[in-house]
């Protein structure tokens, strides 16, 4: 799958907390081992019980657009050939309180609307560290 943003666009810096999210090819959320609370983005401490040990919970990767915007002004100016583009906030079906930012890959930015159903798709990109293949979640309107 082609990248939504240009090839020079910054990639996530992978660390122990976000590796599973950016490399698994699934929508995976941090799940507290103590109280089973699911949270995103991954943090050092559970928001509910202050636990510090976590598992990963794999989601369906389906949801609805909770909010969106269309970027029309190229900031930085090097994005002048890329605008307009859409940025969406997705509420997951299996965890509606969790919202994930991304881009809708198969729709004209002007046609994006709150409530549209989306499904996660993944951009496969060789990471900046050797041997790390990123699978960046994006969203397909279904
Ligand atoms: Zn907890």
**Element-level helix/strand string:** HEEEEEEEE
Name the strands of the widest sheet in spatial order.
6-5-4-7-8
Beta-strand residue fraction: 35-45%
The overall pLDDT average reads: 94
Which distinct ligands sit in these coordinates? zinc ion
Through-space gap between termini: 17 Å
Query: How many domain units?
Result: 1
What does the largest sheet look like? 5 strands, antiparallel
User: How would the global form be characterised?
Assistant: globular
Q: Flag low-confidence runs.
A: none
Number of helices: 1
| Proportion of helical residues | under 10%
Q: Would you tell me the structural class of the helices and strands?
A: mainly beta
**What would you report as the Rg, rounded to the nearest angstrom?**
16 Å
Number of strands: 8
Summarize it:
The protein is mainly beta. It has one helix spanning 19-23; strands at 28-32, 38-39, 54-58, 62-71, 85-92, 99-102, 117-126, 133-141.
């Amino acid at each position: 799958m082609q990248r939504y943003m240009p090839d020079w666009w910054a990639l996530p810096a992978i660390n122990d907390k976000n590796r599973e999210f950016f490399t698994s090819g699934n929508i995976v959320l941090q799940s507290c081992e103590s109280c089973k609370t699911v949270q995103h983005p991954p943090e050092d401490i559970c928001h509910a019980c202050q636990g510090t040990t976590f598992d990963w919970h794999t989601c369906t990767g389906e949801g609805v657009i909770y909010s969106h915007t269309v970027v029309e002004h190229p900031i930085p100016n090097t994005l002048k050939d890329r605008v307009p583009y859409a940025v969406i906030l997705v509420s997951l079906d299996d965890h509606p309180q969790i919202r994930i930012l991304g881009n809708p890959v198969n729709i004209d930015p002007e046609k994006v609307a709150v409530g549209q159903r989306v499904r996660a798709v993944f951009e496969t990109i060789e990471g900046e560290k050797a041997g790390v293949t990123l699978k960046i979640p994006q969203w397909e309107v279904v």
